[in-house]
Amino acid sequence: MLNGKKIIAVLPAYNAAKTLEQTIAELDRQVVDDILLVDDFSADETVRVAREMGIRSFLHNRNYGYGRNQKTCYTEALKSDADVIVMLHPDYQYSPKLVPAMAAMVVSEEYDVVLGSRILGGKARSGGMPGYKYLSNRVLTLIENALLGSKLSEFHTGFRAFSRKALEELPIYANSDDFLFDNEMLAQALFFDFRLGEISCPTRYFPEASSINFQRSVVYGLGVLWTAVRFRLQKWGIAKFKIFDDSDAHMRPGGRYYTEVH
Q1: What local confidence, expressed as pLDDT, does residue 121 receive?
Q2: Is the CATH code 3.90.550.10 the one for domain 7-244?
Q3: Rounded Cα distance, 226 and 12, in Å
Q4: N or C: which end of the chain has fewer CB within 10 A?
Q5: Which long-range contacts (CB under 8 A, 24 or more apart) does 4-7 make?
Q6: What pLDDT, in 10s, does the model give residues 218-258?
Q7: What is the pLDDT confidence band of residue 260, given thresholds at 50, 70 and 90?
Q8: Domain range list for the chain
Q9: Whether pLDDT at 45 is above 90
Q10: Best CA proximity match to 84, nearest among 66, 105, 98
Q11: pLDDT, position 125
């Protein structure tokens, strides 16, 4: 806990058996009260490894995608009475050692959302980020800042911390079930005037670290641009979009599509 606030780390997992133990080992359990892992129907032993480590785990009944995985993560974290939720990839691409710092920024009540930025420290390329990913990151972030009226160093990090209030009030269940979820969520946070902060975070690229291929990166990039356009059109009152309708904040996917693993 921090200042009496319950901190839960959520791990959206897919084929993370080789890196999960190392990720968990670097989480400060004096700060992190609980860890929840959601497995998106992995082909490896992710769930078995998690259970052997005593990590509370949930399993999707098929592969739904990265966005749906996060929706399950946040649903279960809120049900577990989390005050601060930190989303950390279990592939060890981001440093688990920064979870306490990010959680503290939310606990301070100065920020509702905190991002672990790979760009702030200037070490993204030396950390192994491919050139085309770095270039697309910078170009997309420049365009997004212009259209969304923000000044973030990057929109595409997968290391994030949220206040309970943010997750309860953002209409995240209207977002994509795929990789675009992350970007839509930040656009929503800016649309509804939540306070965003950033912290410098080193990143690691290696064979076991998850990454989307070039083709999916292109699809993602186009989706990012469409999200920014939708944001601006709704701000101008020209059109309305479901992802910016906070009356749907509590609408969740229908049916029971995951189970807790015992």
Answers
A1: 75
A2: yes
A3: 25
A4: C
A5: 5/83, 5/84, 5/103, 5/107, 6/33, 6/34, 6/81, 6/82, 6/83, 6/84, 7/31, 7/32, 7/33, 7/34, 7/82, 7/83, 7/84, 7/86, 7/99, 7/103, 7/107
A6: 899 999 999 999 999 999 999 999 999 988 666 777 778 99
A7: very high
A8: 7-244
A9: yes
A10: 105
A11: 73
pTM: 0.94
CB proximity list for 89: less than 8 A, separation 6 or greater = 11, 12, 16, 23, 158, 159, 210
Query: The tokens of 125 are what?
Result: 């390329």
Residue with tokens 């959206």: 12
Q: Which residues contact 16 (CB under 8 A, 6 or more apart)?
A: 23, 42, 44, 46, 89, 90, 91, 210
212 closest CA partner among 70, 91, 86, 58: 91
* Token pair in block for residue 147: 């259209």
